[in-house]
Amino acid sequence: MELHTQDIANVRLIHIAGRIDLTTAQSFQDLLLPQLSNCTGETKKALLDLSRVHYMSSAGFRVLVLAARQCRQQQGEIVLAALQPDLQEVFRIVHFDVLFKVFATVGTALEHLSPMAAALYGGAA
Amino acid sequence: MSPMTTLILPARIDSLPRGLALVVECATAAGFPPQRVMEIELAVEEALANICLYAYPNSNGEVEVRCTQDETRHLLIELIDSGIPFDMLARPAPDFTVDATERPIGGLGIPLIRALMDNATYQREGARNILRLTVLLPL
């Protein structure tokens, strides 16, 4: 799996790609959690772009719970975007559609998080 | 005839890719669409992971992955080990009414298996645990 980040105004956009299973979940955790260390209040909000994730098992869900827990402890906001249709049912089964706000696209998620970031993102697109 | 494919692996996490590759191959050959193949793979990953982590607490052992396409339009996936009696399906589901950041982490594998498979059963036969996952073949 791969992860790369992009800061747009007060949003850290984290693109995740690949397969998140029991053999890759530790790498996912090691790459993701440090990216959330300054995710607090309005200072920095986190947006996970899942458009290139086609497989996620409970080992990956565990990491997402850790991420949500860390952001909550820091009073930070974290949301998800662009979930693959194949994974939507799986997210529903484990109630992650309740745990996270999930947006259809990165653009709509940015509009929710930060008008400034949405404008910069729209301008760049 | 019911074609059967089987593979015996060390019950270790690093065996998962080989076990899952077999299941994906069988599910694809049986004619399942890609999304259903992914769901089958996911359920089997959860079950195999539980066996690798818990079936042999004090020793090394093996797990057999067996796929059979039967005449009743089912794909049957059996996971067989000789570890301690272990019915993963009997584990209580997490309390989904409690926020996931507040309750203990984990326990999502079994709800996934139950929801994604058409049927899941456990049997202790002699010294073996047999977990049977059944998936209805596409029409």
Index terms:
heterodimer, A: 125 residues, alpha/beta, Transcription Regulator spoIIAA, five-stranded mixed sheet, 5 strands, 44% helix, B: 139 residues, alpha+beta, Heat Shock Protein 90, five-stranded antiparallel sheet, 3 helices, 31% helix
Task: Describe the 3D structure.
- The complex is a heterodimer of chains A (125) and B (139).
- Chain A has one domain (2-105): 2-Layer Sandwich (Transcription Regulator spoIIAA), CATH 3.30.750.
- Chain A contains six helices and five strands, in the order ββαβαβααβαα.
- Chain A has helices at residues 25-32, 58-73, 85-93, 96-99, 106-113, 115-124; strands spanning 2-8, 11-20, 45-56, 78-81, 102-103.
- In chain A, α5 (106-113) runs antiparallel to α6 (115-124).
- Chain B has helices at 16-29, 34-54, 109-116; strands at 4-10, 62-69, 74-81, 119-125, 128-136.
- In chain B, strands 1-2-3-5-4 form a five-stranded antiparallel beta sheet, covered by helices on one side.
- In chain B, β4 and β5 form a beta hairpin.
- Chain B is globular and about 45 Å long.
- The model of chain B has no long low-confidence stretch (mean pLDDT 93).
- Classes of the chains: A alpha/beta (125), B alpha+beta (139).
